[in-house]
Amino acid sequence: QLQLVESGGGSVQPGGSLRLSCAASGFTLDSVAIGWFRQAPGKERKGVSCISSSGGTSYADSVKGRFTISRDSAENTVYLQMNNLQPEDTAAYYCAAAEFSCSNEYYYWGQGTQVTVSS
């Protein structure tokens, strides 16, 4: 059974850090692109970062220099390291799989994990 499971969300103060995990089962992450998306209440879902099957990475301008995406093939997990978190980063974060490229349609989604940044 194909499955993506996010974890690592929580509540932090501004300036804090969290590392989100996206663990896959039923398929190998090396063969797909994994994107991280976020959706705040009342707002549209937006792309945050992506790692392609070849290892290329991309970031939204709002998180460049603060977030880092990586993939651990042995663990079949993609991580999103989030540093210097700000209140505007508060959202539900989702990972999703696309075929090979970050620009392809995302066909499988995880259930999401909540990130809350407040003082």
Overview in brief:
With 119 residues, the protein is mostly beta strands. It is 0% helix and 53% strand.
- Which value, in Å, is the CA radius of gyration? 13 Å
Number of strands: 11
How many helices? The count is 0
Query: Low-confidence spans: pLDDT under 50, at least 5 residues?
Result: none
List the secondary-structure elements in sequence, H or E.
EEEEEEEEEEE
Q: Tell me what portion of residues adopts beta-strand conformation.
A: over 45%
Structural commentary:
With 119 residues, the protein is mostly beta strands. It is built from no helices and eleven strands. The relative contact order is 0.31.
Labels describing this entry:
single chain; 119 residues; mainly beta; seven-stranded mixed sheet; four-stranded antiparallel sheet
Strand and helix map with partners:
Layout lengths: L2 E5 L2 E3 L5 E8 L6 E8 L6 E6 L5 E3 L7 E6 L4 E6 L8 E9 L6 E4 L3 E5 L2
Parallel strand pairs: 2-11
Antiparallel strand pairs: 1-3, 3-8, 4-5, 4-9, 5-6, 7-8, 9-10, 9-11
